[in-house]
Write a structure and sequence with these properties.
By secondary structure, the chain is mainly α. Helix content is 58%, strand content 0%. Helix 5 (85-102) crosses helix 8 and helix 7 (123-148) crosses helix 8 (150-176).
């Protein structure tokens, strides 16, 4: 369920393509916040830092999220361990997803993906971001740990991250990083 929210529902919502209704699409985009990540960071980094330059080795931010551990583009140098990335890739996505929960603050004010600079994010969006992180910490970690004990909750969290990472590595990564979809350089086009 969480991987479907994280891959399908929030993705379409953050692209404004979930439904023709603006409110329901806004809610769909913010389901990512329910998973502990940030819809604001996602819209900025994914929509502008990825979709504005899909498969462009130097500009598409999607290629640098897992390198050097995963080689996702033919222009990235090949290392001996890339022969085995199909075996360890979903474990790596486990860590990427864990980083999404706690690592979005460093991206929050950076948000200037070359070549499409989109300015700064407003203070109210930052307050919402902090509130969502604190709320997630309480309803996903602290309250369940208090009620059931952290030892009993650890397998649940582990299953959550593994399920999400397997879904992410089998669906999302395969559909986004393919050399069959080339980058079109519009320079000089009016």
């Amino acid at each position: 369920m969480c991987s479907q929210v994280g891959v399908n529902i929030m993705h379409d919502g953050n692209h404004g393509a979930f439904t023709s209704g603006k409110t329901l699409t806004w809610i769909a985009g913010h389901t990512l916040d329910l998973l502990g990540s940030s819809s604001v960071v996602y819209r900025r980094s994914h929509n502008y830092g990825h979709h504005s330059c899909v498969n462009h080795y130097e500009l598409d931010r999607a290629f640098d999220t897992t390198y050097p551990w995963l080689r996702l583009h033919a222009n990235q140098p090949r290392e001996w361990f890339h022969n085995y990335q199909h075996l360890y890739g979903f474990f790596l996505y486990f860590m990427v997803n864990f980083g999404d929960l706690f690592g979005t603050f460093d991206e929050f004010f950076w948000m200037s993906n070359y070549p499409n600079r989109r300015g700064n994010v407003g203070f109210s969006a930052f307050v919402f971001h902090v509130f969502v992180k604190i709320a997630w910490l309480f309803y996903a970690i602290l309250i369940p740990s208090y009620l059931h004990g952290y030892v009993a909750m650890f397998p649940v969290w582990f299953l959550y991250f593994i399920t999400f990472s397997v879904g992410y590595s089998l669906f999302f990564a395969v559909n986004h990083w393919t050399l069959d979809a080339g980058f079109v350089d519009n320079e000089g086009v009016s």
